[in-house]
Design goal:
It is built from ten helices and no strands. By secondary structure, it is an all-alpha fold. The relative contact order is 0.16. Helix content is 74%, strand content 0%. The chain has one domain. Helix 4 packs parallel to helix 10, helix 5 runs parallel beside helix 9 and helix 5 packs antiparallel against helix 10.
């Protein structure tokens, strides 16, 4: 007799039962959707806001560096909150928040190299220091560029960081998957939107 005909009516162990409900699938992508919404909101609020997209790239870079240095993916969100707090402290200090995050990120990257924190495993850990330097270099290069060129450079940096987020999400290393999802949604949306606006004019 065919297997499906012999299965009890209450037995839901077939292929259909193993497929997650649509709402569970959407729920699992909530961080990415929130990131996309945040990126769209920022683009709509001020399409030509260089400081805004620069801050996002810096916070993403600083957040990853601090989390990778700590070696505790489970602490991803609290550590990112610390990085954001450092940036906000710039509002109360003579040093701008963007400068504070740049300094902290460079210090963490250099300290991590001295202490051997960028050695695998995981394999991606070996790239954290180089990635931190690369994204900071992208940010610092905007000092010598006009606004239009600076937006293009930062937008490309955001897209590159979005790809970096996806690598971490797929391999589930260094940062929490929810953070990698959220950051990918924000970085790619904001980077693609800012680049399109800059090119179109």
């Amino acid at each position: 007799m065919h297997r499906s005909l012999t299965r009890p009516l209450g037995d839901e162990s077939g292929p259909a039962a193993r497929r997650p409900a649509w709402w569970r699938t959407w729920l699992s992508w909530t961080p990415a959707l929130i990131g996309i919404a945040a990126g769209v909101f920022q683009l709509v609020s001020d399409p030509h806001d260089l400081d805004g997209i620069l801050t996002v790239l810096l916070l993403a870079t600083g957040g990853y560096a601090v989390i990778a240095y700590a070696g505790r993916p489970a602490w991803s969100w609290p550590l990112l909150a610390v990085v954001v707090a450092i940036h906000l402290a710039g509002e109360l200090l003579p040093v701008p928040g963007i400068a504070l995050i740049t300094i902290v990120t460079l210090e963490v990257v250099v300290l991590g190299a001295i202490q051997g924190r960028w050695r695998p495993p995981p394999r991606e850990q070996a790239w954290q220091g180089w990635a931190g330097f690369g994204f900071i270099a992208c940010v610092l290069s905007t000092v010598w560029l006009d606004t239009g060129a600076a937006v293009v450079v930062v937008a490309i940096g955001l897209l590159a960081h979005g790809a970096w987020d996806i690598v971490h999400l797929r391999r589930r290393v260094v940062v929490a998957p929810s953070m990698a999802q959220w950051c990918a949604g924000l970085d790619i949306t904001l980077g693609a939107g800012a680049l399109a606006i800059a090119v179109v004019g």
